[in-house]
Amino acid sequence: SMSDYLNSKAPPGPLLVLPPDDFYQMPYSWGYYGNDGFITSLLSREVVDPSAQGYDRVSSELSATDAQVAQALLERRWGLANQLLAALGTPLILVRGDVLASFPGRDITSPAALVAGLLSDPHVRLLHRAGPLDVFAVVGAAVHATALSHRIATVNSSAPDLQVLPLLPEGTSLVTSPMRTGLPAVIQAPPESRWRLEGDTLTVDLAAPAGWAYRMVALSPAGVPVISGSVTGVRGGRQYQLRTALGAQQLVDGSLRSGPWQSNVGNCNDFGGRNVGAALHGSLIPAAGPAGAPALRLEATTDSACESTALRWSGGSLLLSLWVRHVSGAPPRVCLWESALRRCSVQTPGLESGPAWTHVQAVITPNPEAGELTLFAYADSMVAGQYTVNEYADAAAYPVVAPLGAVALLATPSTPAPSHLQLLTANSSYSGAWTANHGQHVLVDGLRNGWLVPSNRTEGLDPHYVPAQWDTLAQLTSALAGLAILTALILKDLPVPWGIHTRHTNQRGQGL
User: Fold this and answer.
1) Where are the beta strands (DSSP E) in 59-151?
2) Which pTM was predicted?
3) Strands 185-188 and 152-155, sheet pairing
4) What is the pLDDT of residues 191-209, one digit of tens each?
């Protein structure tokens, strides 16, 4: 019923599907648990419905914006929600009330809470209801293939936090670019993985060139941990240094100063039925780690050597930090094990590392129902005869109150930009395979294609997609392979499986 309405009676424009998928398999009240691609198959319009951890690659910016729309509706931040929907180019919103938000072990936003938020949002109106499904429309939203704007701000990230949009003049588009003379700018703090960990304090430096006035803003409504800062003069401008203290260490013995985590190394990939004790080895090497710290050395010639240490965790996000060194075989790997759910809240299949010690850190948010947490480190040998040696040192886990990366400097130019520069945006996902007759191709809001053009040259731009070389080659290769299989079957006088078909996805995510 809903698909019939959306295909024949609803206003035009792309559709955003909520709640956001936390996994590519979603649970439904009518007994279905699986990929929700049937939604796009039923609709004859563009649909934005990114799936986390699915088969198709989804940009982190699209997933983040999708989640921010839902969060803005829950927090009644109507202005932000409206601007995020405009950035996505989705004037229609479908809320799937048949999704089981309470499904065990999942983190799914309540559809009922989203509907309540949308019904209160002055920027949207309810269009149609079919059973547990609700469709809303943004009031006054216009659908255009392209749009011109002269309100431009540069941003120093290809994945900008769009929560900054309400802090800028209405209608401002963020262009990923170095700062441009005369244009306002957003200098976004890097993600936590790029802050410097010094003891139990995180520090980051933000360059602030001359020619702009600056003010610091928190992008998250929950605020950020208490951040102290200092401003120093540097050649050509200033530098802001931000610092924040973290909570107490959560790992029972991340430093390894009391010895190895276990007296006997474990096997975390035991195929069973084989005596592999001599093939797995764990040892503590004093003063072998960074700054003379002890190091845990794991070795394996079959299966997976592992050791673990527990965390004193009572909820919330964690900043995980450790040093790794890869000696031979498979790369280092760690897992933060959620005992109650029997899964890893984070698993790094191949940490960036080499023969020298490498520092790795990331913010992790375990499931609230995770139960006890345990950090595992591995040496994997999954190929016959593979000798894997990895070393780990100085592991730590600190509580994080709020996203540290949700901090930015807003830069206002001392001299406004000349009015001749305009931005033409196309309602299509960004790809380097898009081109135009002139203008500079740019990434807009971390999502869309755009072209910076002089105001007197907006005609004849003609944005168009040129299939990438690999995409064209893949189509040709599959076509030839299919023809070869078909020919072989015919020559062998075998039944032809006419149901066999191939499917490709181009850089725009459209099936070919």
Assistant:
1) 92-96, 124-130, 133-138, 146-149
2) 0.75
3) parallel
4) 877 888 888 888 888 889 9
